[in-house]
Amino acid sequence: MRALQALYKFARVLGWVVYGYWRVRTVFPKLSDTQQARAVEVWARGMLAIMGIEVRVKGHPSPGPVLMAANHISWLDILVMHAACHCRFVAKSEIRNWPLLGVLTTGGGSLYIERSSSRDAMRLVHHMADALRQGDVLAVFPEGGTGDGVTLLPFHANLLQAAISAQVPVQPVALQFVEAATHQRSLAPCYHAHDTLISSLWRTLCAPPLLAVVHYGSTQNTRDRHRRDCAQDVQTAVADLLK
Asked: Domain coordinates of the chain in residue numbers?
């Protein structure tokens, strides 16, 4: 029975992806930036609802300009953070060319980086800093990869450089997935190194109803700070939010 329910949800997920693709291609060009942001939030909440995931927010997202720094558990993290409060993500450049999903990611306002190129990393830092100076809300996953939602990987300081350059605050964000009925931590959404997107999606669809908890911490000043010290303080703050 659970497999049949998962198959039904999988079909609805595909339909919602196609709907989002159509919206980005046909409707988004006619919308203002604010309207696009709200549309992304609505679409993300709709997708999570189809998958049986409810979003619960603790704390308050800071208005821009701000750089949000969150722990990274799954590809679902982007949907969850969009559903809680629209922000622009930094994504690897390969995603831009993915069928359907590349268009959706671009429509969500993502900035792309070629991870193998140090020159491109510097270009991205300047691009991020300019966006922050213009009042944007950007989001990064400083761990640089996905963890289990329990133990944090070391935060990469270079991902916070844009906030330091633009002299805007960093807001720590803690993400967790728990079972809705028991509030016990769920590992179903975790995206492991051996996973594919399809296998991870299927495992999530087969799981019992989930809560995605987004806990916003207090913003941290970056003015005149070294990025390594900033990264360490942000990591400590995220760890405290996860307790």
From this structure: 2-242
Domain 2-242, CATH class in plain words: alpha beta
Q: Give the integer Cα–Cα distance in Å for 82 and 44.
A: 6
Task: State phi, psi for 112 to the nearest 5 degrees.
Answer: -110, 145
Beta strands 137-140 and 111-113: pairing type?
Answer: unpaired
Buried b (16+ CB within 10 A) or exposed e, 85-116: bbbbbbbeeebeeeeebbbbbbbbbbbbbeee
Confidence tier at 115 by pLDDT (50, 70, 90): low
Contact between 93 and 111 under an 8 Å Cβ cutoff? The reply is no
211-223 confidence digits (pLDDT tens): 999 999 999 999 8
What predicted TM-score, i.e. pTM, was given to this entire model? 0.90
Contact 111, 91 (CB under 8 A): yes
At 194, is the secondary structure helix, strand, or coil?
coil
DSSP, res 137: E
DSSP string, 106-134: HHTT-EEE-TT-HHHHHHHHHHHHHHHHT
The Cα-based distances of 191 to 45, 70, 78, 115 in angstroms read 20, 15, 13, 19
- Three-state DSSP at 60 gives coil
Pairwise CA distance, residues 132 & 126, whole Å:
10
The 3-state secondary structure of 7-28, one letter per residue: HHHHHHHHHHHHHHHHHHHHCH
